[in-house]
Predict the 3D structure of the following.
Amino acid sequence: MSTPQDQSTTQATVPPSPEFAAQAVAQADLYERAAADRLGFWAEQARENVTWDTDFTDVLDWSGAPFAKWFVGGRLNVAVNCVDRHVEAGNGDRVALHFEGEPGDTRAVTYAELHEQVQRAANALQALGVQAGDRVAIYLPMLVESIVAMLACARLGAAHSVVFGGFSADALNSRINDAEAKLVITCDGSYRRGKPTTLKPAVDAALAKGAPSVTNVLVVRRNGEEVDWVEGRDVWWHEALEGAAPQHEAESFDAENPLFVLYTSGTTGKPKGILHTSGGYLVQTAYTTKNVFDVKPERDVYWCTADIGWVTGHSYIVYGPLANGLTQVVYEGTPDTPDKDRWWSIVEKYGVTVLYTAPTAIRTCMKWGEEHPAKHDLSSLRVLGSVGENINPEAWNWYRRVIGSDRTPIADTWWQTETGAQMIAPLPGVTALKAGSAQVPLPGIVAEVVDDAGEPVGPGQTGYLVLTEPWPAMLRGIWGDEQRFKDTYWSRFPGRYFAGDGAKRDDDGDIWLLGRVDDVMNVSGHRLSTAEIESALVSHPDVAEAAVVGATDETTGQAVVAFVILRGGHEQGPDTVADLRNHVAKEIGPIAKPKSIMVVAELPKTRSGKIMRRLLRDVAEHRTPGDVTTLTDSSVMDAISAGMNATPQD
Ligand code: PRX
């Protein structure tokens, strides 16, 4: 594998302030303890962060690799860990959830209230026939009831399968059938951009396509939109909970009892049902929440802007924060309703201390302008987090300066649906931060960057990210498809987990993520990362956002094609494209110069905010764009295709 360019890989770092370092939850000794005895370290974390009804006898059984068993013999109830034990410890009056509806309605739910709701819901689910070992599909927006529903499943030992509310009836149907869900929990609808939306019709349509495993649909009333009703099948959530007893005795389950299945896309058209189990998952989500975000329940107000439909919502809204007994904000709507300062008004209103969001959101806020956060007092913020894609240094610096007042540490956290919890991230009181790098594996995690032959790469070299040791929150398989699990993750480098991400080690040993390996291009035999070129483009003062794809090219193998959105107030001039190409050449090297650059108004994004490079590749290669059904706005592609055809190419 060749080095893509000759650039210095050392970079300025931002050490933690002495005041922050002195009070930090995680100190440097965590690394030493984990390195000295990794499994002993995880046993310690397991006993410190989780309450076990029966202690485990072995930390790890890897004899059935790649199928791991963590905390063997241990028994616990995940919901009791997230709710009951905080009430028992005398913290029932602490607010667990500050719910903020998009229209401005609010609701504060204490741990005692959450406890009662979860118990009633568990009884209601049980009355509908749900028992340990079943699957329950949850198709809900960001509501208190969504979290209650997930915890009620966990309490019963039934696995939930949350399907993001933006997915279509078809997608919901295939997920319900793949997991053979017994029950579907949904709502009438929600609010988005000031308008009522509906969810129940998609469930009705999904079930009309055939879902033999489903016996009932439990319906939360949120916005009062009219819904069709199937007598005998459909049940109102509020009626079921009112009719249920407020106490529910929780059973203990084996550490390896399935906790949830979550579908994610792979390289084929069929989504993979990623399976997570109970003990190891809870240990690692609780441990990472506490140490990476430096949280203490008496002090912090935590807010993760993800949706529970994605793994970030599972691990860093539901399980990690609640296991820690935190107070958190749950917001239903979009960041620009009614105005572009909504998020910042929420931070000010609740005194949010820890904010966890995605680079795409940060770049959107950059595009909207600094005047929106400037309207609010953000001085409560102590720690900022980032997840989902690599955060380009420009966005990192903006996040730190504009949102964090040049004061807050930023935790860039690398992980995946499959890893279940954060894997590579700085510790905010220990690590000297480097804008754009996720830096080092967390204590207890072992990662490596390797070349094609599986050998570790040297400083400045690119390769593939692999995880060389099992970790507690690792996926336990793909639902119903053992072979795909082995093939996808464990066959490329036998014995090691292949993450599918390109990465680079710098001179200090810090890891830089370079995007999915299918987004790594090979131009004239040189390996180039889409992410690195995007970062270079975004570092140009005129550019708000950029997406780069490798388009097949007769001469060079692949050619770099870039799509850019200019910042507000910047018009495309006659020299814009030439300027940007030269800028990339200056930042990375002439080899990385995009062959063509197209200025666009919007980029095609999935509902979770990921740029759909596959569609851009279609345009760059002059094909009709493929399946656009997962886009937030499918008209975006029409505009880009029309523009591409009208733009003379080099
Ligand atoms: O490519 C990496 C990118 O997101 C992928 C995982 O996506 P998903 O399973 O949807 O989970 C997203 C939330 C955990 C990874 O393979 N990714 C995630 N976080 C980062 C990242 N890339 C770079 N830096 C990150 N911090």
User: Anything to note?
Assistant: The two ends are 29 Å apart (CA to CA).
